[in-house]
Structures are given as C-alpha cells and as structure tokens.
Amino acid sequence: NPVNDMYADAIVAAILQADLLEVPIKNMSTSVKVDRMHFKECLIEMLQDMFGEDSVPKIFKGEKLYVTVNDKRADIDLSNLEVKCPSDETFQQIVHTAVTKLYQSLAPPQIDM
C-alpha cells in the first residue's frame, strides 16, 4: 500500500544519505559482538521490506545469501559483509549499504581517535 511504500522510500533514502556521511570502517571497532542469528533474521526482514518477500529466500544455511530483483542477483557473504552483483553496480551498492548499515546499527561502533 502507499503508506508502506512511503516508509520504504524514506528508509532507503536515509540509508543512502548515511552512506555519504560514512566514517571509514578502518577507524571503527565494535564494542559488542553481533548476535549472528539475530543479524541474519533482521537482514532477511529488511531485504524483504526493501525489495519484496519473493526477492529473498525465506531460509538459508551458512554465511551466503542472495537477493534477486528484476532478474538481477546480488550475492551477499555475511562473513565479511561483501556484496557482489556484476550486472548492476548501483543495485550492488544499495544492497551493500543496507547490509553494512544494519550490521553497524546492531553493533554500535566506538570510533578510535
């Protein structure tokens, strides 16, 4: 419905805007370990909200996940938060930003000065 679309657009815009203001990852250390299972559950839910329920598998094993939109597939490696989509660099960047920002939100960083 239109209200859900409005929220989804606002979230994507906020994520992309935050990416422009991103502090370099090399200067950050996490103070708390992320619960991997919780991260995976949140990631699946977020990707389904962003791209639709049919774009993400409901269940997956291991550290590999993918999201498919308009015949474009982005492969996500959860062990190093790497995203690859050779056919669409913009889609790759959107997914990478979403994955990274979700991870960072679940493990608040301490900036080393």
From TrEMBL:
Transmembrane parts of this sequence: none
Every Pre-mRNA 3'-end-processing endonuclease polyadenylation factor C-term domain range: 1-108
Pfam families named in the record: CPSF73-100_C
GO cellular component: a single term: nucleus
Subcellular compartments: Nucleus
Claim: Nucleotide-binding is one of the keywords in the record: no
InterPro entries linked to this entry: CPSF73-100_C (IPR021718)
Keywords associated with the record: mRNA processing, Nucleus
Superkingdom, natural source: Eukaryota
Keyword match Nucleus: yes
GO biological process, one term: mRNA processing
Name of the molecule in the record: Cleavage and polyadenylation specificity factor subunit 3
Organism: Anoplophora glabripennis
